[in-house]
Amino acid sequence: MKSVFLIGLFGLLLTAPTAHAEVSTAPAAADFSVHAKRLFEVAACGGGEDVVRGAIAAKHCKKLQKTIQKYRDGWLSKARPFFAELVPKEVPKTIVYPFGGADLMTVLAVYPDFKELTSISLEAGGDPRGLEQLAGKSLRNSLDIHQQYIKKLVDVNHSRTLDLGRLKGDPLPSQVVFGLVGLVTHGYEPVSLRYFEILPDGSLRYYSAADVAKADAMGKKYRGSKLNRKRADFFGNFELVFRKVGDEAERTYRHIRANLDDEHLATKTKPVLMHLERKGKITAITKAASYLLWWRGFQTMRDYLMKNMQWMVSDSTGIPNNLLDTTTFEQLTYGRFSATAIKGSADGEVAMRKLWAGQERRKLPFMFGYPSKAQHKHLMVTRRK
Question: Which of 80, 77, 111, 27 is nearest to 285 (CA)?
């Protein structure tokens, strides 16, 4: 897989030396909270019935709100009480979600009291100003394609990387929109939206207005979907601060665009690993992760998880038993697993089938990530002994 951490043309603009503080605030970070609020209202359909959206957005919201309600009634109503009983109260409130796009819908169901979430995937956050260039047919088309993919996520409980990649050429910032839909689903609202790069020591440098202006100037030679892709590359990593509606307590969600295979995480995108290491003890989650944690080429990510995670929930795409440090960790299985629905490793499949067969069958009342080849629901907990 090719690197997706380097931000290409725009990345060349952001290499000036910067003090390596945990979070640098000089120069001042460009704040896109106004854009986040408008995306929240128009694309994610939040903010109540008094929001002025226009006829196209109103039609989109009528569909999306039905999808959200279907999710609440069909999945969330079963998952929320299940995870409330399953997840120990003492697990770290810092969550890491490898191979996960902006899946706030799931994380807020599994870990509703988290304080900080970091997801890492191949998908870029996207330019939060994209909504401003849309009107008429172009607005309808962009909203329609996002509504369709959100509906698909609700219907099958996972998104395909291939599908998400198609959204990169759209003006709307798909990963930001998905995150905002998660907020609407669970009754939260955005507070601020900023973008950042990760410095060699793992600290963050937030993009300034000057950075954005330089990137815009460099992007003038591009048009259409190619311009949208270039903008998405620049706006790859985002930080969304949010709060419960009516509450002042704030939480932080960061999404990092990165390739997590060994070649990149251990060398080319090592700052991502350095950033994750700074978090100390974490709680983890992954699902529908293409069985990448089963492959030898993702040892660095597995090692990071086994070093730092205290508790993890996953479908069968989590760390397979044959590659797990079983002197430190144990795994509990739920539902049924017979074989992978998509290609995993032969050794991993044997180990996971044996793991499920060796435990009592614990009920799972909902789909979590991929089904098994026989369409069985399944879930796995990996925890320290």
Answer: 111
Q: Which pLDDT tens digit goes with each residue over 245-280?
A: 999 999 999 999 999 999 999 888 899 999 999 999
> Same structural domain for residues 238 and 286?
no
> Tokens 């601060």 — which residue?
241
Spell out the residues 6+ positions from residue 37 whose beta carbon is closer than 8 angstroms to its own: 47, 190
Q: Does 351 fall in a domain?
A: yes
Residue 16, helix vs strand vs coil:
coil
pLDDT tens profile 87-134: 999 999 999 999 988 899 999 999 999 999 999 999 999 999 999 989
Which residue is associated with the tokens 């044996």? 354
Number of domains present in the structure of the chain: 2
What range defines the domain where residue 372 resides? Answer: 280-385
Interhelix angle 136-156/174-186, nearest 10 degrees: 60
Checking phi first, is residue 290 left (phi over 0); if not, alpha (psi -120 to 50) or beta? left
d(CA 319, CA 331): 10
Distance (Å, whole) CA 316 – CA 337: 8
pTM exceeds 0.85, yes or no: yes
DSSP string, 215-243: HHHHGGG--HHHHHHHHHHHT-SEEEEEE
